[in-house]
Amino acid sequence: MPAAPETAGPTARSRPPTDTGTLGKAIAVLDIVASAEAPMRFTEILDRCDQPRGTLHRQLSNLVEEGLLSLNRDHSYSLGLRLLKFAAKAWAGNQFRTIAEPHLRTLHDRTGETVHLGVLRGTEVIYLDKVESRQAVRMYSQIGNASPVFCTGVGKAALSALPDAVLDTVIAQIAFRRFTEHTIVTAADLRAEIAEIRATGNAYDREEHEIGIRCVAAPVHSADRSFVAGISVTGPAYRVSMEALQSWAGLVREAANAIMDDMAPRLGPRT
Fold this sequence. Notes:
45% helix; alpha+beta; 9 helices; three-stranded antiparallel sheet
């Protein structure tokens, strides 16, 4: 589940640097601003990127002019409203979310707790959909947020579906950091847990990303594993015991399999 990260290094992102020219640099700036919990000043952005001061100033000016960033009165930068238009278009055309939605609602009806759908992107999972709990106390997660793969149920479930060679590449790129006393912080421990997930079909978040939050998850993938995601049932630890999560494990796997069955005609036959 998304949580406020600890301060550990200049950025919470763990993606490797890319060389995609001017566009790549602009996207990197957008990514830095998007990942911040509050609007950022120029010097803060400069500290988190590898661009020269003059280049960054031009990038920011261009992004503001195009409506992708907003320059606030206190000279800080936040995401621009034009991004909402792009997001709405992407959202409307997301077939995977449409396919998954009825199965997420069925899972929610059967458990009563919050259900999440997330897709793997590098060393993060992006939450595409959420069905909120019927209980009075609910999750603060948001659709569109990103969370680390190594300490979330959806993330670990998605990792378990990757071919070994791809998994090795992703794990090598992870910047492990401790969010709670339960967080996995070594590649060896993560590999051991992924082996267990592959054997059982379920991943768990045992208060690893945020104290007081637990979940059980299962992987969703295309036949060739080129598309990998996960679904989860999540709840507060005081209300959702590990025994309860384990009792829902089969329901989560069932929902994941139903999504893959519905995906098959559009994304190729399952193997």
